[in-house]
UniProtKB/TrEMBL annotation:
The lineage of its organism: Bacteria, Pseudomonadati, Pseudomonadota, Alphaproteobacteria, Hyphomicrobiales. Belongs to the DNA polymerase type-Y family. CDD domains: PolY. It comes from Limoniibacter endophyticus. This is DNA-directed DNA polymerase. SUPFAM superfamilies: DNA/RNA polymerases. Pfam families: IMS, IMS_C.
């Protein structure tokens, strides 16, 4: 396993990306504290992104609007516009590619690059060129922090440390050369180490590991034991500066979820939104040439939640998955009652099989009918693609207030243009 002797990776993170894109797109928001909310009138929801001006008042992402307003009464609330953020991301990536090849886009506001010899020799100049190009061609309100280190893990940690330094937001720069990486690393809080979530943090406490230096000095086999898999051992090598990459993840599911606006917090309205979310998931399933054999339905309620997994033959058409949803929802109504108040709904297609490996269910003997429904779904997809919108659908197509059904931007996925049809 190779251990680089110099910096080889860049990690770039845009600060308050949704909020800064809003400020760049709307002059009226510039210089003001901005909080992005999931739906119109979202005073009972949380801010999903905040601008640097709001952060200076102590407002943080995923803070309730009520608490955020207590800290910053003048904060302007803006409803999220996922398609705007997607288009901004596309424009930014095109500008960055003109300076340095992008190795991996980690999320809509994070990416990593491999440095060539010239860039390793002068990372400050590379950072200046990146920021200057973005400022000139994208705008001055979308800013970024940049971290450099021997590998991706350390570069990400450097980037986060630089972002927090000296009270700056979106203008940090941190360079962790291998020979001095330890002194920077040991200043990082244990729960700020990527891969150490809240559950793992508590587990490390039980093992007597209380800070990053103690984690660093733990043996790799012990790390594997704590994580109960090879991930812990990989983390050990990454923290010690080795060039180690996690294997590519395999597609495991297609799903969508949505926080329900107040007017849709009933079992009847939630079902209609779940139906639209499921059609969007099925479209993605077909676009990427998969079949599924299961549907996972879940609801967030006032005190707890409800889930159900429905088994399916190997399918990818709208009729099959919508029938499973209806059956699952009937069970939910039986279990919860019609007066239950759901706050969030999600649907996920699971147990995936590549289209080329599909096998029909001999006992079910529905292949002729199934092929007809598949052809119908393919025809619907073709029409919607031709007109870049949902012009044909199975059942009514009435997106809820605020739209964005199936167009949610998650930590691991950037929607495509088709997700907004």
């Amino acid at each position: 396993m190779r251990k680089p002797e110099t910096i080889e990776r860049l990690y770039l993170d845009f600060d308050g990306f949704f909020a800064s894109v809003e400020q760049q797109a709307d002059k009226r928001l510039r210089g003001k504290p901005v909080g992005v909310v999931p739906y119109e009138g979202g005073v009972r929801s949380s801010v999903i992104a905040v601008s640097r001006e709001a952060k200076m008042f102590g407002v943080k992402n995923v803070m309730s609007v009520v608490d955020a307003k207590k800290l910053c009464p003048d904060m302007v609330l803006v409803v999220q516009k996922p398609d705007l953020y997607r288009r901004a991301n596309n424009a930014i990536l095109a500008e960055l590619e003109a300076i340095i090849p992008i190795d991996a886009v980690k999320s809509i506001d994070e990416l990593t690059c491999v440095l060539d010899d010239e860039q390793r020799a002068d990372p400050e100049l590379l950072t200046y060129r990146i920021r200057a190009r973005l400022r000139e061609n994208i705008g001055q309100f979308i800013t970024c922090s940049v971290g450099y280190a021997a590998n991706r893990q350390l570069a990400k940690m450097a980037c986060k440390a630089g972002k927090k330094s000296e009270g700056r937001y979106g203008s940090g720069l941190a360079i962790w050369h291998p020979q001095e990486a330890e002194q920077h690393l040991f200043k990082v809080k244990l729960d700020d180490v990527p891969g150490v979530g809240s559950n793992m943090f508590r587990k490390l406490m039980r093992f007597g590991i209380y800070d990053t230096e103690m984690l660093y000095n733990t043996q790799p086999k012990q790390m594997r034991k704590i994580w109960n898999n090879v991930t812990g051992e990989r983390l050990w090598y990454a923290l010690h500066g080795y060039d180690i990459q996690a294997p590519e993840s395999q597609r495991g599911a297609f799903g969508h979820a949505r926080v329900l606006p107040p007017e849709a917090r009933s079992m009847t309205a939630a079902y209609e939104i779940a139906r639209l979310l499921l059609v969007k998931a099925a479209r993605r399933l077909r676009r990427e040439n998969y079949y599924c054999s299961g549907l996972w339905i879940w609801l967030s309620l006032r005190q707890d939640g409800w889930t159900r997994t429905m088994k399916l033959p190997m399918v990818n058409d709208d009729q099959a998955v919508l029938s499973a949803l209806k059956q699952g929802w009937d069970i939910a109504l039986r279990d919860l009652g019609r007066t239950t108040t759901p706050f969030r709904v999600g649907v996920t297609l699971v147990d995936l099989t590549p289209a080329g490996e599909r096998q029909t269910d001999l006992l079910l003997a529905d292949d002729v009918e199934r092929q007809r429904w598949e052809k119908a779904s393919a025809a619907v997809d073709a029409l919607n693609s031709r007109y870049s919108g949902t012009v044909v659908s199975v059942g009514d197509w009435k997106p809820p207030k605020g739209g964005n059904v199936g167009g949610k931007i998650s930590f691991t996925r950037i929607p495509s243009a088709e997700d907004f049809w």
